[in-house]
């Protein structure tokens, strides 16, 4: 009789431990997913901010041809992969600031150079992300 009571108690303890382990794993999984979602949201918002900056620059650009190029660059950045934060993002941000200054100064040569630099940086970013993704699988 005592053996069966102890056996039943051991089974209850094991089941309780298993349920606790499952609950702990679920909580950790939810925390990881929430953290990943917040990180992805921040990176996506940062990319959207850069695109908006380019669109605003295009709107105030006095030269329609350059404005079209700025809009094209904004679309290129908009449709690039924005799921991963990359170190090159800061350089893109700095080039967009340089582009804004050159457009406000009405310096067509500096604007062209800044646009070319942004295009090269976006292409480099896309290549870096492709390598990062290839290495993560």
Care to describe what's here?
- The chain has one domain.
- Helix 1 (2-60) packs antiparallel against helix 2, helix 2 (64-78) runs parallel beside helix 4 and helix 3 (88-104) packs antiparallel against helix 4.
- It contains four helices and no strands.
- It starts with a helix and ends with a helix.
- The model has no long low-confidence stretch (mean pLDDT 86).
- It is mostly helical.
Question: What's the helix and strand layout?
Answer:
Elements: H1 2-60, H2 64-78, H3 88-104, H4 108-136
Helix pairs in contact: 1-2, 1-3, 2-4, 3-4
What brief labels describe this structure?
137 residues; mainly alpha
Question: Short description, anyone?
Answer:
With 137 residues, the chain is an all-alpha fold. Helix content is 88%, strand content 0%.
* Beta strand %: under 5%
Globally, the shape reads rod-shaped
Overall average residue pLDDT: 86
Number of helices: 4
First-residue to last-residue Cα separation: 56 Å
CA-atom Rg in angstroms: 26 Å
Enumerate the spans where pLDDT stays under 50 for 5 or more consecutive residues: none
Largest sheet descriptor = none
Structural class: mainly alpha
What letter string, H or E per element, gives the SSE order? HHHH
Percent helix range: over 70%
How many domains, in number, for the residues? Answer: 1
Counting DSSP E segments of at least 2 residues, the number of strands comes to 0
């Amino acid at each position: 009789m005592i053996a069966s009571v102890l056996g039943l108690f051991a089974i209850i303890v094991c089941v309780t431990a298993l349920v606790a382990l499952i609950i702990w794993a679920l909580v950790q999984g939810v925390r990881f997913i929430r953290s990943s979602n917040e990180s992805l949201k921040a990176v996506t918002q940062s990319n959207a901010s850069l695109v908006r900056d380019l669109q605003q620059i295009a709107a105030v650009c006095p030269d329609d041809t350059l404005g079209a190029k700025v809009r094209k660059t904004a679309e290129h950045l908009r449709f690039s992969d924005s799921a991963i934060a990359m170190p090159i993002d800061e350089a893109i941000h700095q080039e967009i600031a340089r582009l804004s200054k050159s457009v406000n100064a009405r310096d067509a040569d500096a604007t062209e150079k800044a646009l070319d630099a942004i295009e090269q940086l976006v292409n480099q970013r896309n290549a870096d992300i492709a390598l990062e993704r290839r290495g993560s699988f």
